[in-house]
């Protein structure tokens, strides 16, 4: 495999690099704020993840045959657009997506949920290099990774937030499942019911992120690479993804039963009829 490789080739939205033999980096550059659109997920993120997993599995099989553990280790870093320090991901393009009448029935079960499944079961450690805001679906994207290294916000404000409560939207079952898998009950109340904007220090104290870093995107990426070097060897047994399937069983099962949520107007209409 020759790197860098970008997807889709005619209009790159992500770029995959391989800075060392056992570390891969997927940089998201879908505009400045990395909205999670259907094209971005299906034509960019999916083939990028396929590329990384395919290359690692090829190495792992060779390492098993040669009894070489160095070939078996591996880790992946997911980072926001490296040309800016403002956004990791701004979540779904809700205004644009909801213009499609099939959005509520198709987007989550067919497009978004498979991405969450892929991250929750990926066979090597994934580190999110959170180099700016991670809102709504962007927060779910970061939390679906195994580790999070975040800017400390000293150079520019950065928040983690599920802001659906503020604009009257129900959080989909799949995203709620990821939140439940990664946050405590009291933290979930702040995330889901209060729509709290977590500063990096708050996110660290509540274990939503593992490290915060003073500096720009490159400093965050350097810290993420150091973490990748530390945890990458754990993947050498091949059991990382297998054990994640059981660790996140409840969340994974929720991904397969995601249904259309009742919106706030429908809920009010039902209450009116009942009362």
UniProtKB/TrEMBL annotation:
Q: What is this protein called?
A: ClpP/crotonase
Family, per entry: Belongs to the enoyl-CoA hydratase/isomerase family.
Matching entries from CDD domains are given as: crotonase-like
One Gene Ontology BP term is: fatty acid beta-oxidation
Its cellular-component GO annotations read: peroxisome
Q: Which GO terms describe its molecular function?
A: delta(3)-delta(2)-enoyl-CoA isomerase activity
Q: Which sequence ranges form a coiled-coil region, renumbered to this chain? A: none
Which Pfam family, any one, appears in the UniProt record? ECH_1
Q: Which InterPro entries match?
A: ClpP/crotonase-like_dom_sf (IPR029045), Enoyl-CoA_hyd/isom_CS (IPR018376), Enoyl-CoA_hydra/iso (IPR001753)
């Amino acid at each position: 495999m020759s790197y860098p490789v970008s997807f889709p080739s005619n209009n790159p939205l992500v770029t995959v690099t391989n800075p060392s033999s056992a570390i891969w980096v997927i940089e998201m550059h879908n505009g400045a704020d990395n909205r999670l659109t259907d094209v971005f997920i299906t034509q960019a993120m999916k083939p990028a993840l396929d590329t990384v997993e395919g290359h690692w599995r090829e190495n792992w099989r060779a390492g098993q045959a040669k009894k070489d553990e160095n070939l078996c280790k591996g880790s992946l870093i997911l980072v926001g657009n490296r040309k800016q320090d403002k956004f990791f991901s701004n979540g779904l393009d809700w205004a644009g997506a909801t213009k499609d009448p099939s959005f509520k029935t198709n987007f989550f079960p067919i497009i978004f949920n498979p991405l969450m499944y892929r991250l929750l079961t990926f066979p090597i450690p994934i580190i999110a290099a959170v180099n700016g805001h991670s809102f709504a679906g962007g927060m779910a994207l970061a939390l679906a990774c195994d580790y999070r290294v975040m800017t400390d916000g000293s150079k520019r404000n950065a928040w983690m937030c599920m802001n659906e409560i503020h604009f009257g939207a129900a959080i989909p079952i799949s995203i709620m499942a990821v939140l439940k898998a990664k946050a405590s009950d009291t933290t979930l109340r702040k995330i889901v019911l209060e729509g709290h904007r977590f500063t990096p220090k708050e996110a660290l104290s509540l274990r939503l992120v593992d490290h915060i870093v003073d500096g720009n995107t490159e400093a965050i990426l350097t810290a993420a690479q150091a973490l990748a070097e530390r945890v990458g060897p754990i993947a050498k047994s091949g059991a990382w993804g297998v054990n994640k399937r059981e660790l996140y069983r409840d969340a994974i099962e929720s991904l397969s039963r995601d249904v259309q949520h009742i919106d706030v107007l429908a809920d009010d209409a039902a209450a009116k009829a009942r009362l």
